[in-house]
Specification:
Helices cover about 40% and strands about 10% of the residues. With about 300 residues, the chain is an alpha/beta fold. The chain has a single domain, classed as 3-Layer(aba) Sandwich (Rossmann fold). A seven-stranded parallel β-sheet has the order 3-2-1-4-5-6-7, with helices on both faces. Helix 2 (about 50-60) links the parallel strand 2 (about 30-35) and strand 3. Helix 1 (about 15-25) crosses helix 8 (about 235-245), helix 3 (about 75-90) runs parallel beside helix 4 (about 115-140) and helix 4 runs parallel beside helix 6 (about 170-190). The model has no long low-confidence stretch (mean pLDDT about 95). It comes from Dactylosporangium matsuzakiense. It holds the Pfam family adh_short. InterPro entries: NAD(P)-bd_dom_sf, SDR_fam. This is Short-chain dehydrogenase.
Length: about 300
């Protein structure tokens, strides 16, 4: 009998994190869904999505969703999550670090010396420190037996982020740092039979992005009237399916240290987005924004 996969999706409240949790649920996994926004209290992010909703979606998809409120900047709160997983299952098979929560904390039109320092440092704490704290706390349980997987979620492949400036000093540093974290963890996990990768979606149609474009998931193509590149966007289901396929791949160690996109995973595992397409945003952008239909 195949063991039920035990996963922790840190930052599962919305967007990619939510759908990664749900698609792990499709695979029958038990998924601990953490974040700061609950039905009782919203985080500073101010969004309405909650971890309870995510956990319910996981269960509806065929898995077991468990919501735990946790601020991943607080080592004590993260420790409590990991201790609960250890007490209830004695192991952790998959850790997904999808913590972000820094939307609106970077400026598109300001150089480092013009930007707000405190806001920029807060962005780095939310986007980088949270991942470090979570991995530091969860890895003893994940490495207690061979085969564990760490997925570091970011924006942009390592190659893309190395060659291009990303929006602002603070945003650029945060996203490139997460790519590097996966690379470094891969080296450290190799000796204990673990695997670490970084994964990026493309132009993600998160709840926030749909609102920004004034569309719904059903009408998203109308957003291309505001920005033609939106024609290359993808739903969170796409990257969710990819990470879930990676998590159940018995040969996933071959990816150790890799920087992967949702399109890379879709090609490897024969997946599509929810609409049946297979968008490849990073290849599209690197190619100079030529004909979106050629990259779907």
């Amino acid at each position: 009998m195949t063991e039920t996969l035990i996963a922790l999706v840190a930052g599962a409240t919305r967007g990619a994190g939510r759908q990664i949790a749900v698609q792990l649920g499709v695979q029958g996994a038990t998924v601990y869904c953490t974040g700061r926004t609950t039905r009782a209290q919203r985080s500073e992010y101010g969004r309405p999505e909650t971890i309870e909703e995510t956990a319910e979606l996981v269960t509806a998809a065929g898995g077991t969703g468990i919501a735990i409120a946790a601020d991943h900047l607080d080592p004590g709160q993260v420790r409590a999550v990991v201790e609960r997983i250890g007490n209830e299952h004695g192991r952790l098979d998959v850790l997904v670090n999808d913590i972000w929560g820094a939307e609106g904390m970077f400026a598109w039109d300001k150089r480092l010396w013009e930007d707000d320092l405190e806001r920029g440092l807060r962005l780095l704490r939310l986007a980088v420190d949270t991942h470090i704290i979570t991995s530091h706390t969860a890895l003893p349980l994940l490495t207690s037996r061979p085969g564990g997987l760490v997925v570091e979620m970011t924006d942009g492949t390592a190659e893309y982020n190395r060659e291009r400036y990303r929006v602002s000093f603070f945003y650029d540093l945060a996203k490139a740092s997460v790519n590097r974290m996966a690379f470094a963890l891969a080296e450290e996990l190799r000796s204990v039979g673990g695997t670490a990768v970084s994964v990026t979606p493309g132009f993600l149609r998160s709840e926030l992005m749909l609102e920004h474009f004034g569309v719904t998931e059903a009408t998203w193509r109308e957003g291309a009237a505001k920005d033609p590149h939106f024609a290359m966007s993808e739903s969170p289901v796409y990257v969710g399916r990819g990470v879930a396929a990676l998590a159940v791949d018995p040969d996933r160690a071959r990816w150790n240290g890799a920087s992967l996109s949702s399109a890379d995973l879709a090609r490897e595992y024969g997946l599509t987005d929810a609409d049946g397409s297979r968008p490849d945003f990073w290849r599209y952008e690197a190619g100079g924004f030529v004909r979106p239909d050629d990259y779907r």
